[in-house]
């Protein structure tokens, strides 16, 4: 539903001790919004999909990023209604975009706390919005599957049976094990930005990325590289056969209106800096 990343300040006008009360207010008064970071086909430059990113709009100050409030949401149980709102809103938006434009896919992060109820909340969102399940991709962290692999595999198999796509996020940063890939019905691997950033600097990082891509393709999975910020990274990933990329080289996260404008173009390509 939202990535933790590196902790950041809570935001102007938001006191840490008030976060729980303000999050409850945000749920009641529509103070959340979604941003969308394009995922681009490395060979064609065409827009393939987008990752959904949550933003909180407090009563005062700038929008607040997830690292500042997700820990509180998880500790208080508010992660469940917030996550359901994200999934329902993303599915509804995707359904409208697919109805009016070319087929399009949105990727939604599913937090470890949501994982045990994933089938229930995903099925409810799909039924409510009418979205084609194949247009939804759920991004699962390694943490979600590491603690109980058999149980996690069961959850993912049931999600897969619904027709949604499944992505293993931040691959290689935590509990990576080849047995996960052999036992989980995953369609996509996402290469963590730390490996992408290191590719230009070190041969080891390049070899790691190259072998992740080769492994994924051997298992009939697509590969998304996160945090692509330079033409050099893009060109190297393209030569290595990576399928998709997202990052500031292509676009910062966009408001829904701007993403919709991209989708209405005859050939929705995303221009890069080089």
UniProtKB/TrEMBL annotation:
Which residue intervals define the domain EAL in the entry? 16-267
Pfam families registered for this protein in UniProt: EAL
Q: Which residues form a coiled coil?
A: none
Instruction: Extract one GO molecular function annotation from the record.
Output: cyclic-guanylate-specific phosphodiesterase activity
Which SMART domains does UniProt cross-reference here? EAL (SM00052)
Protein name, as recorded: Diguanylate phosphodiesterase
